[in-house]
Amino acid sequence: MKTLITGSTGFLGSAVLRELLDDGREVKLLIRKDADTANIDGLDVEIAYGDLRDSESIRSALNGCDILYHVAAYYSLWNRDQQLIYEINVEGTRNILQATKEKGLEKIVYTSTVGCIGLNEDTTPATENTFFNQTTLSNDYKKSKYQAEQVALEFFRGGLPVVIVNPSTPVGPRDIKPTPTGKIILDFLNREMPAYLDTGLNLIDVKDCARGHILAEQKGVPGERYILGNQNMSLLDILVTLEKITGLKAPRIKMPFWVALSAGWACEMVSNHLTGKPPAVPLAGVKMAKYFMYFDSSKAVQKLGLAQSPVENALRQSVDWFKDNNYLTR
Questions:
Q1: What is the strand order of the sheet 200-205 is part of?
Q2: What is the 8-class DSSP label of residue 254?
Q3: What is the pLDDT of residue 261?
Q4: Is it true that the peptide bond before 178 is cis, omega within 30 degrees of 0?
Q5: Full domain range(s) for residue 91
């Protein structure tokens, strides 16, 4: 049995890859020719070069495969070419699911996001069944992932055996870009976070999140969604935990939301009209911080056996990885 993975060069995808290899699985990777392969160098895998926007390269990569993990996504809170996010996340998902349908694969695990799960106004943890208010789709990344999840459900209704996983906020090693959450950790380490916003996230060890994908393949019901998360923490709690791990002082100044929002608008205008570089304060990130992203992972824990390893250990591993790989500037 051969498994194809998309997104294997990224943070979460490389963790999924390692879990599959640890299980002795035969794995093929679909990657772009210009991809940074630091996260997969030296691993025993077959590589197929292609692009989610190129249907022929997808069909070629799927030859001989029985299982698909579609982890790849354009994860960015800012891009001058907004259409690119939709081409990769939405149309790319449609392209690869259409190809898997033609090839008759046994099982597909599609990586969505908790950004497609509803939120409770009182900040109590949300479940897969919480009402979804589309006004929470505060940026193009979240909008594209919501549309892509609808594509996955459309293919399920058409008979494709696709299981959807909704990771919360994975943390741990090999956050190579880094992700927006990794950027929070890195900004803390580099002393570039003088204040914090009153918001919250659900964190999970990236290894547990990756293993949750495999459990979804093995035990997940097609058409169902599974939140892959663990601990709900306010941003201040996260920063205080990082203080405990590193000995560096966490910021104690709470920034009013309107101040952060104003800074986001200003930085966005500079990026869009002057520099062409990512904004220092991403407006999309500020808008997301308006909501406490608290979730209940009981379904995945009970139905799949999702592990709940201590988040503090995952944060420590992330800190160590950034230090060991020369991400610190001071």
A1: 169-171, 200-205, 231-234
A2: B
A3: 58
A4: yes
A5: 2-172+205-230+294-309
